[in-house]
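Input:
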Amino acid sequence: MFKFIENGSVTSVAGIKASGIHAGIKRKRKDLALIVSDEPCNVAGTFTLNKVKAAPLLVSQELISKGGKVRAILVNSGNANACTGDRGLSDALESQKYCSEKLGIDQSEVVISSTGVIGQYMPMHIIKTGINSIVGLLNYTDGIKAAKAIMTTDLVEKSFAVKVQLTTGEVTIGGIAKGSGMIMPNMATMLSFMTTDAEIETNFLKKLLLNSVNNSFNKISVDGDTSTNDMVVLMANGVSKIKVEENTENEELFFEALQAISIELAKMIVVDGEGATKLIEIAITGCNNDDDANTIARSISNSPLVKTAIYGSDANWGRILSAAGKSGVDFDPSLVEIKFDDMVILGKNYEHEFDEEEATAILSKKEIKISINLNAGSGSSTWWTCDFTENYIKINATYRS
Amino acid sequence: MFKFIENGSVTSVAGIKASGIHAGIKRKRKDLALIVSDEPCNVAGTFTLNKVKAAPLLVSQELISKGGKVRAILVNSGNANACTGDRGLSDALESQKYCSEKLGIDQSEVVISSTGVIGQYMPMHIIKTGINSIVGLLNYTDGIKAAKAIMTTDLVEKSFAVKVQLTTGEVTIGGIAKGSGMIMPNMATMLSFMTTDAEIETNFLKKLLLNSVNNSFNKISVDGDTSTNDMVVLMANGVSKIKVEENTENEELFFEALQAISIELAKMIVVDGEGATKLIEIAITGCNNDDDANTIARSISNSPLVKTAIYGSDANWGRILSAAGKSGVDFDPSLVEIKFDDMVILGKNYEHEFDEEEATAILSKKEIKISINLNAGSGSSTWWTCDFTENYIKINATYRS
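Output:
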């Protein structure tokens, strides 16, 4: 049992302060976020699989892998501190150290993260002045300001929180995220920072996060690209004194809520995908196994031909079938059934006597569910993608990311 | 030693007739092509890896796999005869049979191929009327008409021929091809039909074709999609009486020419890619091995972020490096060097003190070479891709392929 909280965020969780400010890395918009827990937190993270990893990502990945407690997450937008070599690494460590000193905590308690332009050195004086300011502005309600400060080409901030009724009491999970281009799953693929006041042992927290990310952030696609900086971090401060342990009913209840908030954040990233006008759910069923279903869902979600057809509200089921076919998964195309929402578009043996106007009407909506049943087994996978529009091209032809 | 022939085509080869007509499958443009050899030919083919295979592709793939001789290639555009089930298969066989009867040859001597809309039955009366007409129009000069008749969203026909000086005399290779969306390599990925008057044993012809396709048609990318109908077929009629045999100097000379014509056809497909304004050569060197180089080249060639940046003439080397990084290949990013034409954009240790204006000037050209040296080994691979523009979206949002 869980319930989304109105205007929820990381600060909906007990003992979590945050803020977001304009430090000056970007010309106008907010560009520095800080999330701080009153109590030391167990922490779990997932990180980009890109071989090119940004300096702050390397620092945070190592820190989190050590299994120690953390207290803070410092994030800037406007500069990725990626491909910046030794100087980038020392800049990252300096930011971390400076922030820990201002907070009066240990350097190893500060997770750091950056997003923005690749290949430029961090303006360290701006970062430091920004840290000086933001530390004084931290409070128990400004999670949404942090959500705004981590945006790059995002048009809206992404922030949610859920109250979860466990068998032993109530806990809260809050989260913020940013997209919006360079989204293509495979481990963490964008930024998301989540907090909870549940008490969860570190290794188990990691397992919960990985499973949740695999069904949410790892199943979305905007353009098939994967960034150098992407990570998802979940901090558990235990302030509620309510435990979530493995193989208990609480595990199930907590995971369900964690997955729900992760999926909402992930879907919001897709909705806010660069140039996107539609959210498309790709639901694969009837595969030999879940892995095959996932491969097919990914192939369809990443197909420019499928994504442009949906942009044009064109009921081009041939492109969907063809995108499944090029995935490398073996299946019998003549058994495939395709539905748009509840309307059958393709039946077995390529039957497709559907009403074109009705199909166009469905595809003209803001949210569309495309179901593909391979009628071969019980494997399934659901992905979320967006349409591909002229605006994606415009944004990316000129933006120096 | 080889030389391209002005206005060359499949009919530049001795003993090859062809034509291309408007049969009526499409509203206005030519839509039916026929290539016929006076003498029976050895034949080799490569076919799409898409699990969804069009009926004519299945028929031709089986026919060619049997190793027998062929005399003709019948191709229509406007209708792919894909996802058409049993009726599609019987339509394909009927076209093949009808064509063979009109030519007075065996049904097994006719290769058939289709491209166009998926999921619609072939208008058999139009095909038959078309065959009746085209058989009477065949001649030794109209290869370019055939090239025009296989076009779909292509803006220009693709047709070349080369004269090859072998140690034992001169032979000719001619070829036509069509693109232009749904191009993403992995075995054959578009249509191309080639002819030669050299005398080449079937298994060896297959080896030559496969190697040539791997360095040309399999190394181009327009949008990362792979079609249900794509194939490359090479017919050798032996009319020159000049043999090309394995492990001879002639092999080397012939292969060099076959690869050159294949690369020219492949590059022309990229240049004519849907909405493309620029041809981009992606040359990877210094990899641990050729496979890794190929994987990295593919990843960069297919990256929407790289392709949109080049459209915007934005010297965004970070996206190139990031696209290499997401390929799954292990490498040290700090050793990577990137050049645009002869200009160093990125040196080792992420050095990038280049002149932005000069870089923009290079990226504003119609043809750009991007070289990426990983400085790790001697593996290399060259791909060709195009930029990604608003016109790609426009064409594909409305075209029912």
